[in-house]
Design a protein that fits this description.
single chain; 115 residues; alpha/beta; 4-stranded parallel β-sheet; 53% helix
């Protein structure tokens, strides 16, 4: 991945389930035509069971703050214990290549890049 535009294009083209924290995160990604998004609207153990029943691989895009890191860790470990592979490439890109700290901030970050 070269930049945020490339990151979005690759997310648009993935068939993997994308897990985000809330409705605003989901809406931010949907603005770019990204599909197959699940929000954390249930307890984490319920999300893990739901995902493990129907997916072999997923992407976790929780925010990059303390709470988001806790959520990421709980989901990652729970899903891996249930045989779901976690694609970490997208999250690592945000950590290493951008200053984005929350998923809903992607829209404003792109707007600033295009000025």
């Amino acid at each position: 991945m070269q930049d945020l535009h490339d990151w979005i294009t690759q997310l648009q083209n993935t068939d993997k389930l994308i897990i985000v924290e809330g409705k605003k995160d989901k809406l931010a990604l949907e603005q770019f035509g990204i599909q197959n998004i699940l929000t954390l609207n249930k307890p984490i153990f319920s999300i893990i069971e739901l995902v493990a029943e129907s997916h072999k691989e997923c992407i976790i895009l929780s925010d990059l703050d303390r709470e988001g890191k806790k959520i990421y860790s709980a989901l990652k470990h729970g899903l891996q214990r249930n045989g779901v592979k976690i694609d970490t490439v997208f999250r690592e890109f945000l950590f290493k290549k951008t200053k984005i700290t929350n998923i809903e901030g992607i829209t404003s970050c792109l707007r600033m890049q295009n000025l």
